[in-house]
UniProtKB/TrEMBL annotation:
PROSITE patterns the record matches: CYTOCHROME_P450 (PS00086)
Family: Belongs to the cytochrome P450 family.
Membrane spanning residue stretches: 214-235
Name listed for the protein in its UniProt record: Cytochrome P450
Species in which this protein is naturally found: Diploscapter pachys
Keywords in alphabetical order: Heme, Iron, Membrane, Metal-binding, Monooxygenase, Oxidoreductase, Transmembrane, Transmembrane helix
Superkingdom of the source species: Eukaryota
Length: 496
């Protein structure tokens, strides 16, 4: 019996091997693949960025990696621009596989994971509403500054500034911005268990999926999802976590909608949910509203929080650049009021510092995957419609030859001669928000948050390593590169 089974498996293997090899040959060349499992054994979450950097060099900027789903990696800045900007439409799809439903509210909903008309409509609607609410300027800026004011008050009130954990204060400060924008709600610093549970669950899902070959197999071979036990281990348990997070978003949206009927024009602008409901009237599709809010709530806090947590460590580690940043902020803004976006033109070093934080933190080991919507040709390689593709923004920021000594933290690298303006060709290569039609929908808000948070931190505190400790800048080896948890020492800057 066992012998028969073995013969059957071996027979199938040799029958399908030539077909598999012929299929592999249809993609742009890449590192050698093992039959059926592709590059899974030598492409691990922990070293994904290093593998991409090596293969990108070996295969002249474009290669296919099989995990075991084939992904065409587009490596250098010029080629990513050729694909994502010059051929923007062809590269505007988001990959859909059944297993990936484990990470989303529902297929064909929201902005981040939808495609075609749903994506175009939801993204356009969301950006119009955000713009009307003042994204990237005035109203939004005031929301950010309010949140920063509360952050500073909270940090000032902490009993021991010698050894401060800024992880949760930063998270709450960032969450309160998106919470206020979407729902006109705020988390209190001393009562935010709901937020902590949400964030802990989100991180657990990221971490578990990053390290799960079983999940990757289920992405390529969906029948695994239907197998008892294995299907649950591969996908079901992650979906359960996602649905718990969705429950929080759905309940919040419902309770905001139930608050009061909209009566005045001002009500329409109270928050995203009200503006969306007003805009759609009877046409409202609740599942789209839930999914779009979930996308903005999740994408709008974890990324910005992680970058700011890195920023605190860079400030503590690199004292000279911290001092230069503070001196500039003090000379332009003083200490009596918090920085604002109108100060930005007079704060070229602070602007450079923010760009260097984004570049050096480089929080995504790989960009969010896309899919081609039509046949296309990039760098002479034919790429057929429906191929999974990924523009390697991590490589561009960590190794593009335009950045001299990219392994060093040097905010001044962006300053043009005279120190008053920035070098555009370098600024363009800070692609943390990606480029093209599917680039980050919250970029304008994120830039305001990062600039104001950074300048406020430098204005208000001297940030040092805790006495006797060194700052460790080794990231966690997950898809999102988090800093290791570590405290800092704060010295409040006296008002002059
Ligand atoms: C430092 C902070 C942030 C970083 C580094 C970041 C980065 C990114 C990246 C790399 C993408 C994928 C782009 C692509 O497919 O090529 C993305 C997409 C997205 N981001 Fe952000 N993001 C940040 C903050 C935010 C904020 C604050 C929001 C919401 C307010 C947001 C909402 C979104 C949404 C909705 C998408 C999906 C866009 C689409 O598929 O059309 N992000 N972001």
């Amino acid at each position: 019996m066992w012998l028969l089974l073995l013969c059957l498996v071996v027979g199938l293997f040799f029958y399908y091997l030539p077909k598999y090899n012929a299929w592999v040959a249809r993609f742009p060349p890449g590192p050698p693949v093992k039959p059926f499992i592709g590059n899974m054994l030598n492409y691990k979450a922990a070293h994904m960025a290093d593998s991409n950097a090596k293969w990108g060099k070996d295969f002249d900027g474009l290669f296919t990696v099989f995990v075991p789903l084939p992904i065409i990696m587009i490596h250098d800045y010029e080629t990513v621009r050729e694909a994502y900007v010059d051929n923007g439409n062809a590269f505007s799809g988001r990959i859909y596989r059944r297993a990936l439903e484990a990470l989303i509210y529902e297929k064909d909903t929201g902005v981040l994971n939808s495609n075609g008309d749903v994506w175009r409509e939801e993204r356009r609607k969301a950006l119009t509403i955000m713009r009307d609410l003042g994204m990237g300027k005035n109203v939004m800026e005031e929301i950010v500054r309010d949140s920063l004011r509360e952050f500073v008050d909270h940090v000032d009130s902490l009993p021991n500034h010698e050894n401060v954990d800024l992880r949760w204060p930063i998270q709450i400060m960032v969450s309160n911005v998106i919470n206020e924008v979407l729902f006109a709600r705020k988390f209190a610093y001393d009562n935010c268990e709901e937020l902590m549970n949400f964030v802990t669950l989100m991180k657990k899902n990221f971490d578990e999926i990053s390290f799960s070959p079983l999940f990757m197999l289920a992405v390529a071979f969906p029948f695994i999802i239907d197998l008892p036990w294995l299907g649950y281990r591969a996908v079901g348990r992650h979906k359960e976590n996602t649905m718990k997070m969705m429950k929080f978003v759905v309940n919040t949206v419902d309770s905001v909608l139930a608050e009061q009927p909209l009566e005045t024009e001002a009500d329409e602008h109270r928050c995203f949910v009200h503006a969306y409901a007003h805009k759609m009237g009877d046409q409202i599709e609740k599942k789209q509203l839930y999914a779009t809010c979930a996308d903005f709530f999740m994408a709008g806090q974890e990324t910005t929080t992680t970058v700011l947590r890195w920023a605190v460590l860079f400030l503590a580690k690199f004292q000279d650049s911290q001092k230069r940043l503070r001196d500039e902020v003090h000379s332009v803004v003083g200490t009596e009021r918090l920085p604002s976006m109108t100060d930005k033109n007079q704060l070229p070093y602070a602007h450079s510092y923010m760009l260097e934080v984004l570049r050096f933190a480089n929080i995504l080991q790989a960009n969010i995957m896309r899919v081609t919507t039509e046949d296309t040709v990039i760098k002479g390689h034919r790429i057929s419609a429906g191929s999974a593709v990924n523009g390697d923004i991590h490589y561009i920021m960590s190794k593009d030859p335009h950045f001299e000594q990219p392994e060093k933290f040097m905010p001044e690298r962006f300053l043009a001669e005279g120190g008053q303006s920035l070098k555009k060709e370098l600024v363009d290569r800070v692609v943390a928000f990606s480029i093209g039609k599917r680039s980050c929908a919250g970029e304008a808000l994120a830039r305001v948050e990062l600039f104001l948070a950074l300048t406020t931190l430098a204005q208000q505190y001297e940030i040092h390593p805790v006495e006797g400790q060194e700052i460790d800048l080794t990231p966690t080896q997950t898809f999102v590169q988090f800093p290791k948890e570590q405290n800092v020492k704060l010295v409040k800057v006296n008002r002059s």
